């Protein structure tokens, strides 16, 4: 498979129309159609359901779209890294992170590093730790900001000097909002919006102890903004880190006994990082 053909495929998948894709790519429609038929023949699968006016992806086509996007992104990232000039630090640093106050510290370091090196650009990808790790392992990210507990056996890491406090986000007019802190017993009968990540849920199960089996899980989530909308609509209380004021209508109440989580900055062992990424990691080490 050629990267050029994969780029053509991605445009067709996006536009769902070969004629329109051909116009965007500045190639003829017959040429583009032949390229796609040759790709299907090479792979031995059908990539498109072809209609009179548009095309849609088959299941195999949807899988190729995901993999093609990763390959094209990795190729583009590599080209940017190799094109930097030696007289100045130039390039892109790709960072994956979850929703955490530790991002405030990292953002300050990014700002300072960029001020010293104006030719540096950051590409920030937000997701839960499992997704960030997957992209790190594929080489699509240079660095990941992960919340513990997390398996870091295959990574080099820096432990950040901050800990995140667990609690719940509830509506301001909720009875729980008036408490200084909430206990496992307080939450045993409350519909909860729980974080989706399995590692984290196991840690929370240890905090709930004997009440864990009594919990009413109304929904799971991976982005607190979505959870905030669900809390506002009355679905329940969202178990989360303290991320500050996520909504005017919500109040954060900490857990009692207190539960805190650390953050680590990781990068893959034995992976050849770009000069820019290496220098940024050293910059953070110096700050810590």
Q: At the third CATH level, what is the topology name of the largest domain?
A: D-Maltodextrin-Binding Protein, domain 2
Round the mean pLDDT to the nearest integer and report it.
Answer: 90
Structural class determined from secondary elements: alpha/beta
> What is the tally of beta strands?
11
Shape: globular
CATH superfamily of the largest domain: Periplasmic binding protein-like II
> SSE string, helix = H, strand = E?
HHHEEHEHEHEEHEHEHEEEH
Terminal CA distance: 45 Å
Features:
288 residues, globular, D-Maltodextrin-Binding Protein, domain 2, alpha/beta, two-stranded antiparallel sheet, Arc Repressor Mutant, subunit A, 9-stranded mixed β-sheet
In short:
The chain has 288 residues and is of the alpha/beta class. It has helices spanning 3-15, 18-25, 29-43, 59-82, 102-116, 129-137, 184-187, 198-208, 224-232, 275-287; strands at residues 48-50, 55-57, 91-97, 120-126, 143-147, 155-171, 191-195, 216-221, 237-241, 250-254, 260-268. Strands 3, 4, 5, 6, 7, 8, 9, 10 and 11 form a 9-stranded mixed beta sheet that branches. The chain has a two-stranded antiparallel sheet with strand order 1-2.
Map the helices and strands:
Blueprint: H1 3-15, H2 18-25, H3 29-43, E1 48-50, E2 55-57, H4 59-82, E3 91-97, H5 102-116, E4 120-126, H6 129-137, E5 143-147, E6 155-171, H7 184-187, E7 191-195, H8 198-208, E8 216-221, H9 224-232, E9 237-241, E10 250-254, E11 260-268, H10 275-287
Parallel strand pairs: 3-4, 3-5, 7-8, 7-9
Antiparallel strand pairs: 1-2, 5-11, 6-9, 6-10, 6-11
Helix pairs in contact: 1-2, 1-4, 5-10
